[in-house]
Amino acid sequence: MQPYELSLTQAADAVRARQLSPVELADSVLERIEQVEPRLQAYVTVTAEQARRAAREAENDIAAGRYRGPLHGIPMGLKDLIDVAGAATSASSRVRADHRAQADSTVAARLAAAGAVLVGKTHTHEFAYGLTTPQTNNAWDRERVAGGSSGGSAVAVAAGTATFTLGTDTGGSIRVPAALNGVVGLKPTYGLVPRHGVTSLSWSLDHVGPITRTVEDAALVLTALAGHDPHDPASLTTPAIDYRPGTGMDLTGLRVGVPRNYYFDHVDPEVEAAVRRAIAQLESLGARLVDVEIPLTRYIQATQWGLMVPEATAYHERTLRAVPELYQADVRILLEAGELMPAGDYLRAQRSRTLMRQEWARMLQYVDVIAAPTVPATAVKAGQETITWPDGTAEGVSDAYVRLSSPANITGVPSLSVPVGHDTAGLPIGMQLLGRPLGESALLRIGHAYQQTQPAPTLAPAV
């Protein structure tokens, strides 16, 4: 096994035991980037020289007994919405062509303090306003979409061109590409991970979180990221904890909610079958399955768009009027549409969110987590605009991909996407686990227990 093939946990163990040096690990990942990046286009920029320098510093620190923990010397990629001092934050847009960050974002600073090694900035759908990331190819089939908007981050992890990455998630933008590329994606509780220094799409829906090979890896990254930040007005004052899930597989006493409605409506049969098999596996580990009714489903789409569209337009108001021609057409149209939305519609969306949060809190009194598909279909062909369901209903690709992930953004509850197999075309399928606010430990425990029953994750073929 080459170093770039190691999960974060495996790499951290090898580095701590002095069986693998950070320099060897960084060189292996950078060589992998050279090999597959021309076909995948996961990165906006690769910082090879800086990465090798940081890896040498990590190696020297560890040799001198200054080991900082499991992220020390580990190669990472950051979605190109996340500021790193002196580097461009392009948001994959011509609008940001001349931008340079003046300071580290809070999450970049925390990862640097933990000793992680930045190898590059990963592509996003322009300003995170989309679900496909068209610049980047799916790690399992280059003719298919990567998912978005954190498509570059998910593809980098799936292809071995980063040991872990960070993404952002406003309606599913961590979990959607994670599911479509067969990796783990975690959207934490709203406010748990600071967003200071991260380009916003929709301030009341935005989250930052890890994309990794395994659930255990995600827990390591979350432990480094979580904690109060006075620079983020939404940041929670929750004490920092260790999210590592342990090795236990016994889920006796845990109640897993299985939706009777919404989450299995208009879902590809292969996706549904794979997710239900995974749910049955949780039951075999001792969990009790409980049927649940998802509340207020008819309002989910309207609430998501009613919040996101005007907030995004407000953020882009100045540049949209000054340089509209620099935006891609799909993003510009959405931003212009936001200028036409009445204030009353935004206020009604806010009221709807309040009701949804209340109803979800009631539902989650009776179960510990909810298990459901992450997305209703695997990765579509690049350029495909709609998905047609067996009953003849046609749905836009972006609407389909966001449909099952957006409730967690509206309500702010944590959601973890875990790979649960492949369809007959060999494309990955994801299951999401949704929990109570600040219920990340339960999600990670259950996801890790499930992964221990499965074969070890493998990298995408990257061809």
From TrEMBL:
Q: Which GO terms describe its molecular function?
A: glutaminyl-tRNA synthase (glutamine-hydrolyzing) activity; transferase activity
Q: Which domain of life is it from?
A: Bacteria
Q: Where is the Amidase domain?
A: 25-444
Instruction: Note the InterPro entries from the entry.
Output: Amidase, Amidase_CS, Amidase_dom, AS_sf
Query: EC number(s) in its UniProt entry?
Result: 6.3.5.7
**Keyword list, A-Z:** Ligase, Transferase
Name of the protein in question: Glutamyl-tRNA(Gln) amidotransferase subunit A
**Annotated gene:** gatA_2
